[in-house]
Here is the input.
Amino acid sequence: MHEFLQSVLVPGLTDGAIYGLVAVAFATLFSTTGVINFAHGQFVMVLPMAVLVAVGAGLPVWLAFVVALLVLAAIALVVEWAAIRPFVQSGQSVSWLLSTLGVSVVLAEVLAIPYGGESRNFKYGVSSHRLDMGGVGVSPAQIASIAALLVVGGLLTLFYRKTRLGLELRAIADDLDGAEAIGISRARASRIAMLLAALVAAVTGVLVASTQPVTPSLGLSYTFYGFVATAMGGMGNIGGAMLGGLVVGLATQAAGVYVGSLVVNVAVFVLLLAVYLVRPHGFFGAAPVRDV
Amino acid sequence: MTNLHNLSGAARSAGERLRSATPAPLRRVLSAPIVHSVLIVGVAMLLLSSWGPQSYNGYVLQLICVYVVAALGLNITTGFAGALSLGQGAAFAIGAYLTAVLVDSHGWPFWAVLLLSVVAGLIVGAVTGFPAGRLGVIGLAMMSLGLVLVVGDMLVQFRSVTGGMFGVSGIYPRWWFGAETVDSLWVVPWVIAVITGLSYWLHARYRTSRLGQATVAVRDEPIGASSRGISGYLTKVAAFAVGSGLAALGGGLFSFLSGYISPDAFTPNLSILFLVMVVLGGSGSRWGPIVGTVLLVVIPLQLDDYPHVNTIVYGLVLIVLMRLRPRGIFSRSAAPAPQGLRELLATPPVELPLARTVPPSSEALLELTDVRRSFGGVDALGGVSLTVAPGEIVGLIGPNGSGKTTLLNVVCGYYPPTGGRIMLAGEPIGGLRPTTVAGRGVARTFQTPKTFVGMSIEEHLALAAARSDRDPAQLQACRRAALDLLELGGLDPHDAVAVTRESRTMSHGQLRFLEAAAAISAAPRILLLDEPAAGLSATEIEGFERVVSDVAAAGVAVVIVEHHLDMISRLVDRVVVLDLGTVLWSGPADQLHDVESVRTAYMGIV
Here is the structure.
């Protein structure tokens, strides 16, 4: 039991919180723009990588974080303009899938330039030193991951329910032409959704870097795990994405511990297959009522 | 007549002008896939013999050929079937490893391993495509991405077979099981060149086959395809299977070309590379994958001195391409399909009305009894009863939201009825799938024409012309009616070049005529027309009416949903007025204006 707590449940939930954050970012962008950003995994890696480079260049740590955040925001805006806005709520999934995939290829390669793609330790995050909590070792970084998932998910839900801006983003999602007709700008909505997703990516990036070395090539796996979590919850559903992330985290951790690290992807793949066979629209998503 | 839309002279593109300037027999030879295949093998072998099979250029050329095989396969999956596969590299890796292991450890001859690779690829593809019935584009893309990650892990996991990170070496061709490896340096180049040619031929033939046409139709307009009796699921699974089969074949060739393979060669980026090759060249086109592959092998090699740049280039290509030219360099997706039109044009005129095969007094062809359909709590149809006899034209009118289109959708099988009975020629069809209903002889058109953007006029007709177990005279009459409709729409069926035009370039009105012509040319038992006159000019409507009455005179039952009351009163035998999902009134068209309830509900005049 203790073994299960220590090596499956705790790390599973914390990994799951990371995947949940990725999934929440997918849901945020998808619900407004109808686009899934395939480069989001790379976005997660941008902030820690930029901090490392900036500190390496001699900037103080706090300034490095500011610079890194600005870099991330700038990249997000360029990507939004180039690869997302043309396809907002267009229904042409092939187009945005390919354009954001292109972004992911470019970003992954750019991220590999500074340290030749090698992993680097990140000392500026939350401590990953384990504390003893009732016999189970838990690090502040792990606690922070789960807290971050709850806070980010909660804030976004409030934002969409309570603020005018959040309502406008949902209006664009529901009926693009109708929303534009009453003066809601599609470009602005897509830009804001992208910035929100990038902000979530920044939080995710710090948490990822706190628990493991910064590895630029990990981006694609995060995209895949995060997508599976989103698909489980139902596309564009924030609560579902959070829950899906935790399930994916537990599944990967259990597979890694009980079978071996090389079957982790298999476990996620099987999970995806299972979701699609049982509930193709996710556990919180709804199938369209009419399609003709 | 109405030649406003006619494609003559200046309206033609440069490509069309070139095609119409070529004499017909030459055109036929030049467009034959087998001719292209021979050309591909010839050019490849000529270049190789001048460079030498072991030269650097020779290697690059063979690598291009190997990638072309996989890219052509992906073009079937992604180009023809529209199912985005991020997993072409998975099948490629499986083929490569199967070949490497069987050749190195078990001494298999090259032809046997390549054959087995194809089979393995077919199976992998069929399994990947298996959930296609329930998944959209995104779901399938993710499934295939997952497959690449899984296969990559497995290559390392089963290291006793695959050699783990060290890979497999010693992959040389043999003629027979356990025989000595062959000395000649020319065997591998010949095998690669010939298989590339064959793959091209197969890929082109796949597209022009009945299955290929159905595949493209489902890609462009799944609902329109189901109304022609084409079921989408099989086309997707087949496209995944054949696409993966070719990828695995390419992988096997890759093993022979390299002589040594390791997991490094099969990263997820390889799958993305294949995808970019197809999309850049023009997915769904014949030559696109080849051109895309050549460009994406040659250009990065030129940039080899600048690390990172070659990878960044292909990412940027994707982004820019999607913004500026999303359909790629070669954007034509229509393929030749002369057979359907040839049959149509060979049909002699007929004397109408036909001596009915069924006596006019015969019972109803279509009979609805108390048909209901609700969406959530809304009763879109609250118990509709109605009959249509062969050769009868029934007009269905009513205000917006009265359930006219829902009625057609329930009859066609798009929504199963929540209650009531639907009989077609004495057999129940309520709740059957749209493809099955279409197969029983129910044809329809839609409010917005559901034609196939990437298919030509002749392909639309070839697609419709499959079923012909109908009475020959009726078939003949329907074919003549279809020809009349095409001419009315300014789509001259005699113009050999104009009929190869893709429907994406046509106007809304032309699409209406094309859709109706395709629906009628299959000689349905009953024709359902959903607002056929919307957006047509007065002369076009007049011509349309004439064709519809011809079709009815040939014994086809017609139901026409229309707001154009003049047309209704001229054309139909009987009017049925729907309001709030029930039949409000039914009777001859000339009495329609005298019924007060109809005036209140529909015309808003009291």
Observations:
- Chain A touches chain B through 47 residues (CB under 8 Å).
- The CA atoms of residues 39 and 67 of chain A lie 21 Å apart.
